[in-house]
Inverse folding.
């Protein structure tokens, strides 16, 4: 069981993709969180019961922007939302682990692993780091954020020092995609393939 984390735009998904190509089973916590409140789900019904129909778009899907602005700056609301989503993500993660082959390398991509204090749940924690300027440039270029939005998202998360404290392996993703692939290959060879 490998925990994979890092700040927004650091390159977790890129590392996860490469690990999957090498044979790991990747469980993406963000994706499970989206699935927990997919259109028509019990999770979405609970969100609507908690926050009102104004968090739904006209087609019955979750209006993520409306929900985000509803819980922004309101700790009680955020905790209530987490109380709906997190147990579902945990249950689904356990199901996916249960069906993985016993000798599989299972990589759990969890953006907020450090913030949630989950490092102890993994045999190995991989932290992906990248320079803040580089991350902002990626988020502006690839995700259409403004530099201010990207910087605000980065500031709201744990610091690189906090991530380093729980890391067993640090991957610095400041170079090209090829550099990153080489680093992931090395981590696979030296820390995972033989496990
Ligand atoms: N070494 C690199 N060179 C160029 N672009 C990169 C590199 N690594 C990642 N990227 C790009 O930067 C963006 C952010 O990377 P990625 O999605 O892997 O980050 P993430 O850590 O998963 O972010 P999030 O927290 O939002 O899930 C993506 O568009 C990705 O293709
Ligand atoms: Mg990602």
């Amino acid at each position: 069981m490998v925990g994979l984390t890092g700040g927004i735009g650091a390159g977790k998904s890129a590392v996860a993709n490469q690990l999957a190509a090498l044979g790991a089973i990747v469980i993406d916590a963000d994706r499970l969180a989206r699935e927990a409140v997919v259109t028509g789900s019990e999770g979405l019904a609970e969100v609507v019961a908690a926050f009102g129909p104004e968090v739904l778009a006209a087609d019955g899907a979750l209006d993520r922007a409306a929900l985000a602005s509803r819980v922004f700056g309101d700790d009680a609301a955020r905790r209530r939302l987490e109380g709906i989503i997190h147990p579902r993500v945990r249950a689904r993660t356990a199901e996916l682990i249960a069906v993985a082959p016993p000798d599989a390398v299972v990589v759990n991509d969890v953006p907020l692993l450090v913030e949630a204090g989950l490092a102890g749940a993994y045999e190995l924690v991989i932290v992906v780091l990248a320079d803040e300027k580089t991350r902002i440039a990626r988020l502006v270029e690839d995700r259409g954020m403004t530099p201010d939005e990207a910087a605000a998202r980065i500031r709201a998360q744990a610091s690189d020092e906090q991530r380093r404290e729980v890391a067993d392996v640090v991957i610095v993703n400041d170079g090209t995609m090829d550099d990153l692939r080489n680093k992931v290959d090395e981590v696979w060879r030296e820390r995972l393939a033989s496990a």
In short: Residues 33-103 form one domain. The beta strands are 2-6, 25-28, 106-109, 124-129, 169-172.
